[in-house]
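Changelog-adjacent note: as of this version, every example in the card shows the full chain rather than a window. The one below runs 279 residues end to end.
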Amino acid sequence: MIPSKRKLGIIAGGGTIPKALIDCCRQSGREFIVLAIEGNADPDVIPQDVPHQWIRLGQAGSGFKWFATEKVQDVVMIGTIRRPGFKDLVPDMRTAAFFTKIGSKALGDDGILRAVVKEIEAEGMTVRGVHEVVPELLVKEGALGRYKPDKQAMTDISRGLEVAAELGRLDVGQAVVVQQGLVLGVEGIEGTDELLRRCGEYRRKGKGGVLVKLRKPQQDMRIDLPTIGPRTVERAHEAGLRGIAVHAGNGLIVDEAEVVRLADQYKMFLIGVIPDVVC
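Full-length structure tokens:
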């Protein structure tokens, strides 16, 4: 665990996982502040009594400066970030200089995130993975609920791992939906929720498909790990899927008790898998 005396700066995107980190800091007494990304972070998960600022993506440079002024030592980037529009990207002077410096290195999500990490650490702060602060968020290996995948589901999971690994290698996405050996859809810029909605329209008769989420092979463990939560289970159920497989030790699960409860309620399996070791 990271020493609790080190002040933490949380860069909060969408979803409920920033709240899990905020709650953990409060329970442990760790000092922290939050930089919330407009159009991404949910105001409902950031309590008003928490020291925080709202910024556009284009104001990231000013946000990093605030962290430095507040003597932040560790930084965690957590939550989903949607693809920005032009208004979001109009840069402050610091951010404009950053984009000029990285230039073509910013091709792809991972390229941008790695450059951001480098920029933050140039300020003397250390970027940490959320799993270093809240290790219990990591997905455990094996079945997490009452139900387990059958032979057909295991075949679909293996196929999904194969496709997701290639998808990740190309820095496209982390998730894929497979049914009866057929790839119904892969994750692109739309995110997992939209992938599931789209695949629900393509589902075939017979046994339902599976959602597989895998960390990209080249992905830094500190940023953008594949994540599931209660909404993932709800969307997967609505899409007619019968299970979810997530990269064990390399993915995050938010509100695990509720995720497992929902999976059991819908008679869906939930399993943490390691590529090449899915049995």
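Structural remarks: The first helix runs from residue 17 to 28.
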